[in-house]
Amino acid sequence: MVGILNISEGSSIALHAALHLARAEGEPITTLEAAESLKVSAAHLSKVLQRLGKAGIVRSVRGPRGGYLLGKPLQEIRLLDILEAIEGPMRLGRCLMSEPRCGQNGCMLGDLLDTINRQVLQQFEKPLSACRSR
To answer: What fold does the segment set 9-130 form as a domain?
Structure first.
């Protein structure tokens, strides 16, 4: 088990690719360059970049010096925007199951899931600019 809190590989690639583009400071990065740098599949990265493009988070530049750039200023891209471009809208669940099963007495974990979900959401509300220097 890697950990209790995990995100999909696609979302992880999207977050890292956006940060990689942010660090490029306006220079287009090709899919192949980014894939090599991030050590991920170029095919998977290409699909992720397409989804980020549809969400306006990145944009493609054609031509011999083409590649991908961020589609918005760093301060306007939240980590949550990137995550939702890949996963769809986030729901704050209060149960590990799709339907609560614990009964009338409430969740066996108390308010732990609600607290964790709110803390994670708070981190993902940060703009990409807050992550750039790390």
So the answer is: Arc Repressor Mutant, subunit A (1.10.10)
